[in-house]
Amino acid sequence: GYNFPRDVGYPLNSEAGSRYLMMETHYSIPPLEVDMSDSSGIRVYYTESLRDNDAGVLSVGLDPNWRHIIPPGQPHVVSEGHCISTCTQHAVPPTGINMFAATLLTHLIGRKVRLRQIRNGVELPPIAADSNYDPNYQEFRQLVKPVQVHKGDHLIAECVYNSVGRSTITLGGLTSREEMCLVFGYYYPRMDLSLCHSLPSLPTVLHSLGIQELWPNDSSRIVLQSRLLDTFQKHL
Question: What is one Pfam family matched by this protein (predicted)?
Answer without folding.
Answer: Cu2_monoox_C
